[in-house]
Input
Amino acid sequence: MATLTGFQQDRVGHFIEKDPYAVLDYSLDWTNWMPSGDTISAITITADTGITIDSTTNTDYIATAYISGGTAGTTYNVEYNITTTNGLKDSRNFRIKVVERQI
Output
């Protein structure tokens, strides 16, 4: 499974909170899943309508999306699909709960 940092979990699965104003990077690390000698060769990251994938990038083992927008009180699904240099494919989903952050 991909390594998750900063995520919370409820009965539905993993989620992370985001302010509607924030533009943040969300990375999933496939190091523990990836067979020895294999690396990520392509990524596709998609999200529900209403939240925006501004850009994506990847290293050998980490896929990252810069995500903006969203409406407070709404939860969005984000899906990461990777293909490796050896032709393996994998997919992971998580949710972003958009909340107005307070001090």
Remarks:
- Residues 8-98 form a domain with the Immunoglobulin-like fold (CATH 2.60.40.2020).
- The longest strand covers residues 75-84.
- The chain is about 0% helix and 55% strand.
